[in-house]
Amino acid sequence: MTLEAHSQPRKSKLGTVKDALSLIHDNMYVAFGGHVYFNKASHMVRAIAKKRVKGLTLSGSPYASYEMDLLIAVGAVKKVMVGNLGFEYLGLAPNFRKAVQLGTIETVVGDESTLIGGYMATVEGIPYHPIISIKGSDILKISPIVKLYKPPWGNEEIVAVQALSPDVAILHAQEADEYGNARYKGQPYFDQIIAKASKKVILTVDEIISHDKVAAEPEKTVIPGLMVEMVVHLPFGAHPCLSTRNYVHDEAHLKDYIQRSQQSLKAGDTAPLDEYLRKYVYEPESIYDYLDRVGGLERMTKLKMMMELGRDS
Amino acid sequence: MTLEAHSQPRKSKLGTVKDALSLIHDNMYVAFGGHVYFNKASHMVRAIAKKRVKGLTLSGSPYASYEMDLLIAVGAVKKVMVGNLGFEYLGLAPNFRKAVQLGTIETVVGDESTLIGGYMATVEGIPYHPIISIKGSDILKISPIVKLYKPPWGNEEIVAVQALSPDVAILHAQEADEYGNARYKGQPYFDQIIAKASKKVILTVDEIISHDKVAAEPEKTVIPGLMVEMVVHLPFGAHPCLSTRNYVHDEAHLKDYIQRSQQSLKAGDTAPLDEYLRKYVYEPESIYDYLDRVGGLERMTKLKMMMELGRDS
Amino acid sequence: MTPKQPDYSWAEQMVVVFARDLKDDDVAMMGGARHDIPFAAVMLAKNLYCPNMNVITTGCYINPTLTAMHYSGHTSVLYSKEADGMISGYDIFEVSERGYISFFFYHGIQLDKYGNVNLHFIGDWKKPTVRGPGAVNISMSVTPPRHYLFPIRHNKRAFVDKVDFITLPGYLDGGDSRKKAGLKGGGPCLCVSPLGVFDFEEKSKRMRLKSVHEWVTVKEIVDNTGFELIIPENAPATKPPTPEELRMLREKIDPTGILRGMAGRL
Amino acid sequence: MTPKQPDYSWAEQMVVVFARDLKDDDVAMMGGARHDIPFAAVMLAKNLYCPNMNVITTGCYINPTLTAMHYSGHTSVLYSKEADGMISGYDIFEVSERGYISFFFYHGIQLDKYGNVNLHFIGDWKKPTVRGPGAVNISMSVTPPRHYLFPIRHNKRAFVDKVDFITLPGYLDGGDSRKKAGLKGGGPCLCVSPLGVFDFEEKSKRMRLKSVHEWVTVKEIVDNTGFELIIPENAPATKPPTPEELRMLREKIDPTGILRGMAGRL
To answer: ipTM score of the complex?
Structure first.
């Protein structure tokens, strides 16, 4: 009997997009990793949009982008908690802006300290985390998750931010083994804290690497498999966003997305954005189908080369 | 003028033991890095003892060892804040035990959560850090740095630990460049948090590596030079303690230290310990003089080989 | 009737009782100043019963491919170069505060009928007659769902009615006092000594004899315990190590016989 | 008299004013949604005046060997593979809370006479007419010793008497109101716009004209500012970029001319 137990292999955590989607439900609180338009689990974002999930609460890095704007565009979102939501030098987030101005989504205005402080409270098992760094900002007046209080030591009032605990974190790393031990080529931004604060972690990766490779250099593991519920292998899964050191963001594609969104929102004619959503979100049957539609291997090779050379062309 | 300014090279942070000692004064609060008898800046500890510094307050990792026991033995210490102070499988810390039992030093009884929580408060710019993990322990009754309070959110009382901010941290890393960018072969334990919480950082390293090597792999830097006041190049500088992946602890030497201490403390005859201190602490004129006295290159080669093979002989 | 002399040591008996109590979905943390019995128990469980149990070592790997036991627990871990990943000082703080791990092992210089443990002071803490080693991490007795006690000496100096100083809270004054004090974790679930196995009675939280090691009598346990144990009518014998358990222990985990040569017991 | 048309751009002028104000022992943090001017200013200072200044980029290196500017600040940083080290999410949180860095740069959709900045809402925050981008990190206006303002449009919509929403606190209601509110950091020390350089009068903390860019008149500044500036009797001309500064900017930092082609100004 004991030898039987011993002979059981360690369970793999590899899953499909469909498997991962089975963990996402209406009205969940979902957190995305990455930063700006870096390391976004974009293909999972499109899959969630395609599944017509509704009523999501979103947070993640204090600087969010494509992932949130797209989910707002398809009406999947009830509430966002975010610092900056935009596309950096490419402009503001059109669907987010419009939704706030129309009042169709709820926003909790935050920043790095309120979001990361909220995750840290959860991670440290406490109901709130002290921060001092938003004193004087009107955020203190309008955010429901912060308040001033008198601390047990010191004379000055400080700010408390309530614990944030997402139901599921969806992260994109460059590589992981089948047990979910993930490595990042470069900075993981806030992914570690987001992973720790979330009840479950879904990881999408450009590449699956062998466990032997991971085990030989344990200091390279950024998110240990211990915390990971499922790993989904999605080559170029961050497209049109950037995956650090693997490929740059697809500037032309993002510009097209922003432009079509702006056209639809301004004119009140939703056709340009609908066309985008049909072609890239609703119709694609797999990551490879999607990649073919955005330029296939030729385009991906170009985006990889641009990252390698460190310039735009 | 501007071109002159431009031509100034970046300042090196390399210094000697003497330079580093000039930063250490009576009645300072000094924090040591490492853990148990791993990664201890042992040669700096001996230099401080030799300089006859008095009235030190000490903390560091929650599991301290040789560094604190030795400084207590020479009467340099007024107060220690520590979790466990001992030599793991080699036994308890003889000079620490005796000093507590005689009441000749003050102790703040702590543990991982109270010490690291205290450093984190400083690091996060707040007067205290919430912890919950010592509720029920009598430490709450006797430690002056913790108290129960009612938090701004949640119904349960939680514990606050006061900010700890050492005047200087003394850390031993395996390697650094001349600007103080330090790398560790393995786990740095609590060295990062201790460095951040301390007003100054002195680093001792087994090896100096080129800045080019550091710059090519920035993800390997554990303590950035930004935080470091001075780097002292001390090959085998952790001896008789262990330096991760470089050399194991010198078990025979540590046993000799413990045994001589016990003899002196039991018999009331301080000769055995005095002999140890004379030979290894007060007389050596340099790290190389010290190393010759503890077995020289032959012994060091053996300790390196034991680490490499991962066994005792 | 003198019980037979077994062909395994009391430490090996302790190890197997603990190993059988661990679960495949546990997140184990091993460490502390005394690592031998916890180390062997976790490794035995991982190898025989719980292939998916996640193991965190305090010094400082996740799921390392461990080599055989060394007298130094920290060196044992260090000698093992392969692992899923490493844990940082931040992780240790967070895991401790949050109660993320499933269990931890503690021993002590005194423990009492409610499972409180003293690692600090015998006598008055201000001027103690004995200053114990202290504790690296108290949290693991406060925040995780359960913790284990592994006293390696079972005598009246170690098993006392009330500890002089509570380093690690057990059930405090018994009953619901632990819960009332707002401690998050479940408390000590099992105490295995060189003489027997003990748990804590559901309501009073007083220590209760669960089983008696093969070579020990109930009287011997009672005579060496400094407080009144709850003794069930027919205390069964502790199930001794199986041949598979002993083979795994002696061939793979403890080939140099640390568990067979341990000082302690009474 | 129409001021002469200079052979450098208003953005280059802004950059050099900032660069000259930085110090060799500063710990610079650059980042934010708009990186161009801060990036160029810090790199110019580092290359010409402050070889030991430590530079932290928000995405996420310490002292990187930066390549030339890119339209994307985050990509600019990413393309640079050499650095002293990297900073983690923990570091960013801690550095922000603690006020560890010496300064940060902010722009905004509105700023007012006390240096308060709005990045969020025009109109009522509950139903704004404009929803701005928000801020990644407010902390850098609260905890560090100083921060800089770099509005890239100087007009009455941007320079308002009172911002609709304080995203980033400046001197709040002026006088000692910032200090009274318990804000740790020093507040905005300098505001450089496409038209001039401004500081804050010591007592009232009201914005004060410090110098006028070469091609601008005081009247033009007054006409484009939505509140009453403190105007000194003889406002000097801003010292234009030196040949060395321009050479460093154009050859090394901004060879593609981002600073020369920037939209903005009025």
So the answer is: 0.95
